[in-house]
Amino acid sequence: MVHRTRRLTAALASLTALGLVAACSSGGDGGGGDDGGAVTLTITANAISGGKNAAEADWIRDWVIPEFQAAQSEAGRDVTVEFLEEGVDDEDYKTKIALDLQSGEGADIIGIDGIWVGEFAEAGYIMPLSEVGGDAVDSWEGWDQMSDAVQSAMSFEDQRYGVPQGADGRVLYYNKELFAQAGLPEDWQPTSWEEVLEAGRSLAGIDGVIPIQLNAGTAMGEATTMQGVLPLLAGTGSEVYSDGMWNGATQGLRDALELYATIYAEEGLGDPILQQEAAGRDNSFAQFAAGEIGILLEGDYFWRSVINPDESIGTAPMANRDEIVGYTLIPAQEPGSGVEGRDFVSMGGGTGRVLNPNSENPELAWELLAFMNSAEAYSERVAGTVSITPRDDVNAEVLAGDPMLSFVSENVLPINSYRPGLAAYPQVSVALQEATAAVVDGTSPDEAAEAYEQALIGIVGEENVASGDG
Fold it and tell me: Most-buried pick from 119, 208, 267, 455 (CB within 10 A)?
């Protein structure tokens, strides 16, 4: 555990020396509130009205707090809820809440990124929800409305540490007009990587069209990992981290890198220059919107925010999006070869909320957290917008008018895999990006995989790496 938390501990020490972190109340006046005594609960999140994640901040301040306080009053409890707003860089926020937790302080309910769960759990900063909130946690009705895959976004080692507050998934987008020109079906669902390549080869006959855009290289950063390497690994039945070990030059990684080599170095089905540009990802969005890219692997936000026909929302708006943009599941390498024997795969991300183990009122804090994740609360949170929630019942109602997001909610979220929430992951992700960059530049997949394993050993130590089988 030491090597996984070393960087976080150093950051905490640095922040402490600068005197930048103030301790927060972790529960107010004590007691559970059932004896008539006044109780104060606190919520913190990296959200602030008029600034970062303003919609979440406004919802907590204007709806969650008054509604929960009113409900508690009706039950004869004197409960006050305070919202400790933040609006800072994610790493600064992470360091602040980590120091709070480490020192036994902090808010009762804390918003965190799902990618931090494993790191915080291993450091002992957070505990499984049921150990903090009591028996009511496991019997909560909300779990029945969230697939196991969605719940795993805030889980670690098969235990729930938090409740997810959002959900997303990855799909293959394709241009139906280009498909028609290439003689491909409008209703397309490939069942293997080879079928994706075959479609790309058909599209290659259209002048001025890039058949396939699969994010690669370091310029696209985490987009390369989440919309490239990791879904491919999942399609081979492999993962970057499993059974307590980081996986090195596995056959799965070699196969994923071989697909990159086929697309970029061998058959010219993708544009290698685009992967090296500082604005390459944004440029790929614009090219897809202009009908210059045939197939693109991206998240559902691409539909909601990038090519949204509403010019006040879309960064590359497509007026005819609903007519010409198709979407389909990402196939495993071969049918049944994906993680857990799946035919199709996806990656998910997102944030959630945890209970502070230091809370003086943990069971009441769970009541508040459960209330924040109720169907009523989510319906209020997404009112006037179209976005995916973790709850199936809410999604069935609010997504009824958007077939694409309904497709993601019903078909993609249940097959999501997630990044390992460990301190070393960001460095490991960069090493994966470098491996794809090398292959796009002509390095053999075997050499790139071996170089990745050596980089991985340098990051986490040889004792924590399961060596590849090549």
Answer: 119
In one letter, which amino acid is 187? D
User: What whole-number distance in Å separates Cα of residue 136 and Cα of residue 178?
Assistant: 53
3-state secondary structure 207-252: CCCEEEECCCCCCCCHHHHHHHHHHHHHHCCCCCEECCEEECCCHH
Specify whether 6 is located in the same domain as 103.
yes
| DSSP-derived secondary structure for 382-448 | TTTS----S-HHHHHHHTTT-HHHHHIIIIIGGGEEE---STTHHHHHHHHHHHHHHHHTT--HHHH
Consecutive H or E run containing 29: none
Are 254 and 145 members of one domain? no
Q: How far is CA 17 from CA 11, 102, 413, in A?
A: 10, 15, 43
Instruction: Answer yes or no: do 193 and 163 share one domain.
Output: no
Q: Which domain holds residue 60?
A: 2-168+350-409
> What pLDDT was estimated at residue 349?
86
User: Is 452 a domain residue?
Assistant: yes
Query: Hey, what's the torsion of the CAs at 175, 177, 178, 183, to 10 degrees?
Result: 120
Structural domain contains residue 8:
yes
State whether 136 and 195 are in the same domain. Answer: no
Q: Which residues of the chain have pLDDT under 70?
A: 1-36, 469-470
Three-state secondary structure readout of 336-353: CCCHHHCCEEEEECCEEE
Please, what sign has the CA dihedral across residues 117, 122, 123, 129? positive
Q: In this structure, what CATH number is given to the domain that contains residue 96?
A: 3.40.190.10
For helices 445-460 and 251-260, give the axis angle rounded to 10 degrees.
Answer: 130
pLDDT of residue 392: 94
* Shared-domain flag, residues 199 and 322: yes
List the alpha helices (DSSP H) in 242-351: 251-260, 280-289, 301, 321-324
Query: For residue 5, what is the enclosing H or E element?
Result: helix 2-18
**Maximum distance among all Cα pairs of the chain, rounded to whole angstroms:** 76
Alpha-carbon span 30 to 359, nearest angstrom: 9
> What is the distance between the alpha carbons of residues 437 and 442, in angstroms, rounded to a whole number?
9
Residue for token digits 């972190």? 21
| Nearest Cα residue to 46 out of 6, 95, 99, 118 | 95
Give the pLDDT score at 24.
Answer: 39
- Whether 250 and 105 map to the same domain: the answer is no
